[in-house]
C-alpha cells in the first residue's frame, strides 16, 4: 500500500495535470466549433483544430511539463516553499493560460472580420481557465502541508499573529546608576553576601553585567501568545474560535485573483468582446497572472501587484467606463486607486524627510 506522501503527491500532480490539459481542450473545442460555423458547418476545419490542440498538448506535456516536474521533484531542497519564485506556476502560465487567452482573442478577431456574432466564450471556457489557475496556486501553497490531521504548527506560515508583547530590553536599575557609597571607615560597601557564601540572584545579575539588570527569561514570542490565546477560548462555543491555515489558503487565493476575474468578466461583455478593446483587456489580465510565479512570501510580490495589476487595471477601467459606460462596477477602479496611492505613499513618500518630523502624527 502506498504511503500517505505518495498518495498526496499523486493527487497534487493529477490535479495540476488536469488543470493544464482540460482548459486547453475545452477552449480549443469551442474555437473549433466557431471556425466550423464560420465556414458553413465545415467538419474538416473542426477536426483540424481539434488535431492541432491534441498535438500541442502532447508536445507541451512531453517536452516541457514532464521534464520540469522531474527536476523539481528530484531537487526537493529547492521546493516551492523555500524559493522566491515558482517554476511550475510559470510553466503553467506559459503553456496553458497564455494559449487560452490567445485563442479567445483570436475567436473575437475571426468573428469581427467575418461580421459574425456567434460565440463570446462567455461562461464555461473562461471560468474554467481561471478556476484552473486558482487551483494551481492553491496546490503550490499547500503542497508542504498535511491533508489529514492537525496542521502541525503550520498555521504561522499563513496567518498574521495577533497583538503580542514586544520583546523587552534590559533596563538600567536605579541602584546600578548610583555611585558606590563609601563607608565611614573608607572601605567600599559591596553587595551583600548570601547565606551560602555567594551573592544573591539579583546581585549576581549586577555583577555579571555591570550597570544592567537582566531578565531570567525572554519575553514570550508572538507565536506562543497567539497559540495560548487560541487555547484559552474553551467551552460550549469553543469551536467558533477554531481556525486552520490550510482552509484560509483557499479563501486567500480566491480573493487574490478576484480583481483579475472581474477584468476578464468585463471582456465577456458583447460591446467589449466584439471590439478592439478585447486585446488590452486580455493582455493586461494575462500580465496580472504573472504574479503566480512569485512565491507568496517574496517581498517582490507587492511591487509586482502594483506594476502588473493595480496601475494598468486602473487606467484600463477608467478608459472602459469613458467609452462603454459602467461595464464594470465603480468599486474596482476605486480599489485600484486606493491600493496604488497607499503603495506609493508608504513605499516612497513616507521615507522622505518631510514625513519624518516628530510633530506630525
From TrEMBL:
Database matches in InterPro entries: Uncharacterised_FAM23-like_TM
Protein name: Transmembrane protein 236
Annotated transmembrane regions: 9-26, 46-68, 89-108, 120-139, 274-294, 314-332
Transmembrane helix is among the record's keywords: yes
Positions of region (Disordered): 178-217
Protein's organism: Liparis tanakae
PANTHER family: TRANSMEMBRANE PROTEIN 236
Keyword tags: Membrane, Transmembrane, Transmembrane helix
Amino acid at each position: 500500500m502506498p504511503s500517505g506522501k505518495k498518495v498526496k503527491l499523486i493527487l497534487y500532480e493529477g490535479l495540476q495535470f488536469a488543470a493544464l490539459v482540460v482548459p486547453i481542450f475545452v477552449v480549443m473545442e469551442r474555437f473549433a466549433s466557431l471556425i466550423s460555423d464560420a465556414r458553413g458547418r465545415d467538419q474538416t476545419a473542426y477536426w483540424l483544430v481539434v488535431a492541432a490542440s491534441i498535438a500541442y498538448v502532447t508536445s507541451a506535456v512531453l517536452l516541457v511539463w514532464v521534464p520540469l516536474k522531474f527536476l523539481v521533484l528530484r531537487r526537493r531542497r529547492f521546493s516551492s516553499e523555500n524559493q522566491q519564485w515558482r517554476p511550475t506556476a510559470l510553466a503553467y502560465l506559459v503553456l496553458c493560460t497564455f494559449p487560452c487567452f490567445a485563442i479567445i482573442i483570436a475567436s473575437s478577431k475571426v468573428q469581427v472580420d467575418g461580421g459574425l456574432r456567434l460565440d463570446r466564450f462567455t461562461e464555461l471556457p473562461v471560468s474554467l481557465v481561471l478556476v484552473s489557475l486558482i487551483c494551481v496556486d492553491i496546490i503550490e501553497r499547500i503542497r508542504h502541508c498535511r491533508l489529514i490531521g492537525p496542521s502541525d504548527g503550520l498555521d504561522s506560515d499563513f496567518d498574521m499573529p495577533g497583538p503580542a508583547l514586544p520583546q523587552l530590553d534590559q533596563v538600567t536599575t536605579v541602584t546600578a546608576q548610583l555611585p558606590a557609597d563609601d563607608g565611614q571607615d573608607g572601605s567600599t560597601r559591596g553587595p551583600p553576601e548570601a547565606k551560602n557564601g555567594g551573592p544573591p540572584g539579583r546581585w549576581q545579575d549586577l555583577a555579571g553585567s555591570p550597570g544592567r539588570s537582566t531578565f531570567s527569561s525572554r519575553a514570550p514570542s508572538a507565536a506562543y501568545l497567539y497559540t495560548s490565546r487560541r487555547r484559552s477560548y474553551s467551552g460550549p462555543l469553543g469551536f467558533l474560535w477554531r481556525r486552520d491555515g490550510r482552509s484560509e489558503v483557499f479563501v486567500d487565493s480566491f480573493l487574490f485573483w478576484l480583481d483579475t476575474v472581474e477584468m476578464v468578466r468585463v471582456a465577456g461583455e458583447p460591446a467589449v468582446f466584439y471590439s478592439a478593446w478585447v486585446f488590452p483587456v486580455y493582455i493586461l489580465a494575462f500580465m496580472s497572472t504573472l504574479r503566480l510565479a512569485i512565491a507568496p512570501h517574496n517581498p517582490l510580490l507587492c511591487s509586482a501587484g502594483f506594476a502588473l495589476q493595480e496601475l494598468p487595471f486602473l487606467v484600463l477601467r477608467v478608459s472602459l467606463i469613458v467609452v462603454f459606460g459602467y461595464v464594470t462596477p465603480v468599486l474596482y477602479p476605486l480599489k485600484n486607486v486606493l491600493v496604488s496611492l497607499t503603495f506609493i505613499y508608504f513605499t516612497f513618500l513616507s521615507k522622505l524627510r518631510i514625513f519624518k518630523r516628530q510633530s506630525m502624527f
